[in-house]
């Protein structure tokens, strides 16, 4: 980032470089489990090409029962990873969905076998722009074809096949993860007993695309991006990626939460400095968000995952009629939205609910009163946990699963 | 900007350079009228310094009557200028508020003498960061003290004094212009017979500050910014300023207007290209907004005017009680807000209305149903024109002004 922010002096720069080395190493040799599909099993991309080899990095929690009927697939959001319930080797932080997953939690590790895989196009071990292109022996960079939500889900299906699982008891996730859940239910209805898309939609709106484009332009405007070939130059577009993260982060919070959390409070000072330093807490907070993000995420990956969301429009794949995507589905849906989420407002969730109703699907819609905006799905939202806990318990009965996967 | 956008090849680059030369010339020698106050009349800044000399560039329309009672001050928005009703020499475009100002228009040039001045800190002829610092003989850059909304208004008051006008019949403006209107009414109640702040508020919210900080960081992240000394280097942070404009522009439109204007429509193509080109109309539109902006606006000025808005908090200047700012005011207020404006939502206008009510002021509040978002104040909003036309006509009677300024 720029003046008023750290990371400029030698020592912290060393830490930064080290953090980026760790991130790059994980992108190519993840600490998590992974499976690589060779030339015999290429990933068919919407771009019209076959991608091969394809590595999918994933984590699992809990125990798969004998008839492999207790599996839950967790889909991560834009900059998430497979470490939903375990420590990330890149950040050293605990699992990003520890509140949702664990013994006695809604996604109960005593009952279920939980799988979370890094999306294709990502940077935590699954094939992405930082991976080595077998043809050039160099990082793909922008030579990796553009990846779509459907491609991500197709790759996940290959992983589920690899694990010998026919049907998932549940697919759930928030934001981009929720888009994947919706795509799973549309593409593989017979493989999803239940589906829980949270804070998501079946398309990206014009405003969503606009904010993503701002972020991409910020990255591409950074000369350190080098047309996507920055890894060859042993550099990274830190400033551009930081600005992209800052712009995106504002959209993850509600105006109300920003006002109540930061308001116009000053950052460690009694009065305004009449400079362009981070006088306000919100400025300091955003700069910090930008700076820490670049140490854990690959700039080209950011281009790919944002593009995947922008390209997603499930109705467009079905003559503009969203209901057609769910005809005769037996999947049980629980759609969750948050009142102050202006990135994926409840109205977008309702479009999915209406389509599911028109398709005669079993659907419950939970609109949760929350101040937290889009990020609510990652935070402590008791109403969300209760709703998902109740939904999964009743589905668990309906499915005839034993009380505990371990007992199976 | 970056790939997929023009302005990269020679010929269009020449046009760009020429446009920037024109802009820089206007910043220092405006085609409009201007007044320069010397060492005897410095501008007292909130930063605690005196600024001298201070030039204020302005345009006037209509005729000042004999008793100088028919003057209206129009305050421009963030990136606006003094050319509210005349062609800008920088862009060659007609006045930005031609719909509001003119013969028979709500701000009637047959009745009123209209003044519009470029804000201090701007880049259209009033003293700003592109102006020459008399001490260094170099452009100020960041050596210009941070300017506030109160400073801008103090400078406008010096201009009004210079024109020999005691009381303005009306002060009006939108967005940052509306902030200036509110500040005028608070600082010089006896000099404002009426005040019309549109799509504005008495403070900048945390979310407002956040978006401005994203823009500033985008500019400062551009190596062409050179710590603010880019003019010495005969360059300009085009890409950073373009990204800043793109981010800001999204906030000027409502989600509804973006969806209805662009939706997910593709730009001059049948299908997605599976690249990072501007596939979507909204991407192409934003890139264009960014590119054209850098040809007409100075990057450092953008830092200063955004900072001025962030710093504004009228209540904070009055023990946190906004009503105190308007005690015993005789000014007649007309507050205008738009339902889909999420940058200055009606709730922010209502805070001003409630404060005025508490202060026993004469106030009418017009909340206009519009899907145009914040930009509505610049667009064709018949309800806005009717409301302001009616308000000014009744104030005109109450003030005892003759039917036409020319007859005076």
What does this 3D model show about the protein?
Two copies of one chain form a homodimer. Chain A is α/β, with parallel strands linked by helices. Chain A has a single domain (10-407), classed as Rossmann fold (3-Layer(aba) Sandwich), CATH 3.40.50.1820. Chain A is built from ten helices and twelve strands. In chain A, the strands form three sheets. Chain A has an eight-stranded mixed β-sheet, with helices on both faces. A two-stranded antiparallel ribbon of chain A has the order 2-3. Residues 1-10 of chain A have low confidence and may be disordered.
CATH class of chain A: Alpha Beta
Name the poorly predicted regions of chain A: 1-10
Helices of chain A, by number, come to: 10
Order of H and E elements of chain A: HEEEEEEEEHEHEHHHHHEHEH
CATH architecture field of chain A: 3-Layer(aba) Sandwich
Offer a quick outline of the entry:
2 copies of one chain form a homodimer. With 408 residues, the first copy, chain A, is an alpha/beta fold.
């Amino acid at each position: 980032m720029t003046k008023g922010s750290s990371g400029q002096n030698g020592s912290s720069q060393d830490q930064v470089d080290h953090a980026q080395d760790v991130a790059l190493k994980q992108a190519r040799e993840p600490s998590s489990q992974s499976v690589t599909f060779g030339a015999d099993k290429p990933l068919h991309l919407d771009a019209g090409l076959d991608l091969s080899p394809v590595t999918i990095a994933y984590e699992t929690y809990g125990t798969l029962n004998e008839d492999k009927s207790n599996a839950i697939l967790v889909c991560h959001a834009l900059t998430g990873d497979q470490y939903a319930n375990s420590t990330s080797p890149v950040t050293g932080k605990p699992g990003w969905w520890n509140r949702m997953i664990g013994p006695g939690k809604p996604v109960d590790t005593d009952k279920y076998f939980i799988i979370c895989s890094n999306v294709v196009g990502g940077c935590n071990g699954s094939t992405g722009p930082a991976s080595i292109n077998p043809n050039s022996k160099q990082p793909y960079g922008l030579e990796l074809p553009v990846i779509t939500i459907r491609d991500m889900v197709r790759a996940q299906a290959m992983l589920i096949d690899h694990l010998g699982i026919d049907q998932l008891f549940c697919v759930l996730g928030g934001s981009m993860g929720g888009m994947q859940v919706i795509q799973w239910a549309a593409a593989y209805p017979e493989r999803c007993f239940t589906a829980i898309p949270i804070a998501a939609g079946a398309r990206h709106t014009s405003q969503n695309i606009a904010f993503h484009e701002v972020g991409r332009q910020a990255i591409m405007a950074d000369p350190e991006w080098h047309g996507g070939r920055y890894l060859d130059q042993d550099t990274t577009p830190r400033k551009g990626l930081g600005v992209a993260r800052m712009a995106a982060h504002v959209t993850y919070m509600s105006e109300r939460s920003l006002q109540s959390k930061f308001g116009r409070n000053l950052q460690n000072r009694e009065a305004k400095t009449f400079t362009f330093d981070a006088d306000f807490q919100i400025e300091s907070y955003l700069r910090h968000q930008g700076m820490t993000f670049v140490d854990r995420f690959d700039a080209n990956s950011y281009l790919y995952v944002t593009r995947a969301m922008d390209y997603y429009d499930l109705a467009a794949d079905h003559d503009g009629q969203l209901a057609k995507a769910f005809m005769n589905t037996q999947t049980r849906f629980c759609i969750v939205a948050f009142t102050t989420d202006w990135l994926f407002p409840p109205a977008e969730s309702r479009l999915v609910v209406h389509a599911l109703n028109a398709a005669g699907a079993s659907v419950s819609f939970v609109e949760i009163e929350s101040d937290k905006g889009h990020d609510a799905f990652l935070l402590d939202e008791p109403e969300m946990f209760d709703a998902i806990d109740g939904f999964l318990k009743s589905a668990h009965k309906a499915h005839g699963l034993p009380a505990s996967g371990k007992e199976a």
